[in-house]
Design goal:
Elements lengths: L2 E8 L9 E8 L6 H11 L19 E4 L2 E4 L5 H10 L5 E4 L6 E3 L2 E2 L2 H10 L26 H4 L6 H5 L1 H5 L6 H11 L7 H10 L12 H5 L6 H15 L8 H15 L4 H9 L4 H6 L1 H9 L1 H10 L4 H5 L7 H12 L4 E2 L3 H4 L5 H7 L3 E2 L1
Parallel strand pairs: 1-5
Antiparallel strand pairs: 1-2, 3-4, 3-5, 6-7, 8-9
Helix pairs in contact: 3-7, 7-10, 8-10, 11-12, 11-17
Length: 367
């Protein structure tokens, strides 16, 4: 029977002792889980070792921890694979610790109420239908719900929250799990508060524009919810569908980025900032008082960039176009000529495409 060493981060607030590391030797077949290893250590070596778990089938989401630096479900991580990953880092121990971005209650148990569930409640996670309720249930065609099936797969394990780099920098960030849950109702045809939800999240400085696209939540999600993808869909709904010009300049930044690529083929960074402050317009950024105020506050950053050589005066004033820029514009023209935007829900249709999958994806169209 293979023997593995689990290096577990211990913490008991009642002891008054600082967090520390403790190693446990366990014997398990390699196909058994890391959770099995932790439970064996608790049952045979230290009954005070604490971890939250329930179904042991990757359904309840209770046992999310950080294993070898990567957040995931302990019951869904094979101990043999975890050991091989540790070896690839030059270690002979499987490191198990509590998730990040949440207070630790004891050992591997974190306070989900303090962060995860608090943020989920922030996005009003229930339907807000219009009019009086029907005599029975709200009925919608199944194809109308395809758009939200990916977010409905969330088991609220908190893995994305524990791995989120934006939350490390800004603890007030609403977070990937809550924003994915927000799209579950924004995309629901029965909900009547879509614009209000989007405006609320766009205007919040810790809302949908606080995500930095690090992909960490996509990588660790055990159910393929891809929270960052849902955040980007919220942004597209807010900007393209409702034209919400928010105080965080999310609308302006997106428009500036898209327009610059269409014009030059590559990003003209010297114009990106002023255009973002001017709701996508370079002229507006030079005449609008609020835009000028924001530009003035950014001058120290610009000066530091010039001093360090990251930005040169020549590059700031002149930016070359791609030699075949007409092909980039052709792509833009073709996309803009379509009456509807097609959102491919890869959770349902897969990544390979095809006639059958394409027909299924028609249910993902957003007006």
């Amino acid at each position: 029977m293979p023997e593995y060493t689990l290096k577990i981060r211990r913490f008991d607030p009642e002891s008054g002792r600082a967090a520390y590391w403790e190693s446990f030797q366990v014997e398990l077949p390699p196909e058994r889980s890391v959770l099995d290893g932790v439970l064996q250590a608790r049952d045979t070596q230290d009954g005070s070792l604490s971890i939250r778990c329930s179904c042991q089938a990757a359904i309840c989401g209770s046992c999310a921890v950080r294993i070898n630096g990567r957040t995931g479900l302990a019951c869904n991580t094979k101990i043999g694979e975890a050991f091989e990953r540790a070896k690839s880092f030059g270690h002979d121990e499987i490191v198990v610790e509590p998730m990040g971005n949440m207070p630790v209650i004891k050992d591997l148990i974190v306070d989900m109420d303090a962060v995860h569930w608090k943020k989920v409640k922030r996005v009003v996670p229930w339907l807000l239908p219009a009019g009086d309720p029907p005599e029975r249930e709200y009925v919608v065609p199944p194809e109308s719900m395809i758009d939200v099936t990916q977010t409905m797969a969330c088991i609220h394990c908190g893995a994305c929250v524990g791995a989120c780099l934006s939350l490390e920098v800004d603890p007030e960030f609403i977070g990937p799990a809550a924003l994915a849950k927000a799209y579950r109702f924004v995309g629901d045809p029965r909900d009547a508060a879509t614009e209000d939800r989007l405006r609320d999240l766009a205007e919040d400085p810790h809302g949908l524009y606080d995500c930095t696209h690090c992909f960490a939540c996509v990588e660790v999600c055990p159910k393929g919810v891809a929270p960052m993808d849902q955040i980007m869909r919220l942004r597209r709904r807010a900007t393209a569908d409702y034209g919400i010009k928010d105080r965080n300049n999310g609308y302006g930044h997106e428009k500036a980025f898209v327009d610059l690529i269409e014009r030059y083929g590559t990003l003209h960074e010297a114009q990106l900032l002023p255009r973002s402050y001017g709701q996508g317009s370079l002229i507006r950024s030079q005449i609008d008082p609020s835009s000028l105020k924001q530009l003035a506050s950014s001058l120290p950053t610009v000066i530091n960039g010039l001093k360090s050589g990251k930005v040169s005066p020549k590059a700031a004033l002149w930016h070359h176009k791609l030699p075949d820029q007409k092909h980039v514009r052709r792509i833009y023209k073709e996309i803009h000529s379509k009456d509807e935007r097609l959102e491919l829900n890869l959770y349902i249709v897969g990544e390979s495409g095809g006639e059958t999958e394409g027909a299924m994806a028609e249910g993902s169209q957003e007006s």
